[in-house]
Amino acid sequence: MIKPWQILSSKVDADYKVFKIRADQAVSPRTNRTGEFYTIQSNDWVNVISLTADRQVVMIRQYRHGSREVTFEIPGGLVDEADPGEAATRELLEETGYAGKSVSLLGSTNPNPAIFDNTCYTYLVEHAEKVSEISLDTHEDIEVELVPLTSIPQLLRDGAINHALVIVAFHFLFQKNGYPQGPCSGT
């Protein structure tokens, strides 16, 4: 049976404002050998699938430095508050100017347990409507686009949506009992 490794030491190796690198010395319970492991420590994240009354998904396009390309995503960001739901409504409003009447948790996932220590929460905001202008950070450049919910499965199949955590978010949505009507079958 696989057991947790014994941690001999743990220290922050580097601090980069939005995340830290932690270095751990740990002993394998199987081999009794010591190894050094690095973990990216980050606040939890949120992703927001926001639907308008006419079942349009509020999507965003933004430049990502990691891939050096413009990606097609849903709003999201770091959780600064104790409640990820509050972060979801804040990020939706800041990045798109939209807000909704109903906010519910669809699911959560560990982005990559090999190197990250955080969780990504996916929220559904229904009956969203434009209530303000977007309010971007100085290092954000975002364009808002409304997409019919029925178009999402094809965008996923075509690779137009290729951000792994956005794909997981739509998986949560499509797996929700009886929701949505149609896109689960690709119609």
What is the string of helix and strand elements? Answer: EEEEEEEHEEEEHH
Structural class by secondary-structure content: alpha+beta
CATH homologous superfamily heading of the largest domain = Nucleoside Triphosphate Pyrophosphohydrolase
CATH topology grouping of the largest domain: Nucleoside Triphosphate Pyrophosphohydrolase
Helix amount, in percent? 10-25%
Please state the overall shape, judged from the principal axes of the Cα atoms: elongated
- CATH-level-2 architecture of the largest domain: Alpha-Beta Complex
In brief:
The chain is 17% helix and 42% strand.
Helices and strands, with pairings:
Layout: E1 6-15, E2 20-27, E3 34-41, E4 45-52, E5 56-64, E6 69-73, E7 76-78, H1 84-96, E8 98-99, E9 102-109, E10 120-130, E11 142-148, H2 152-158, H3 164-175
Parallel strand pairs: 4-10
Antiparallel strand pairs: 1-2, 2-3, 4-7, 5-6, 5-11, 8-10, 9-10
Describe the structure.
Helices cover 17% and strands 42% of the residues. It is α+β, with helices and mostly antiparallel strands and 187 residues long. It folds into two domains: 6-41, no CATH class; 45-178, Nucleoside Triphosphate Pyrophosphohydrolase. Strands 4, 7, 8, 9 and 10 form a five-stranded mixed β-sheet that branches. Strands 1-2-3 form a three-stranded antiparallel β-sheet, with no helix packed on it. A three-stranded antiparallel β-sheet has the order 6-5-11, with no helix packed on it. A hairpin with a 4-residue loop joins strand 1 (6-15) and strand 2 (20-27). Mean pLDDT is 93; it is low at 182-187.
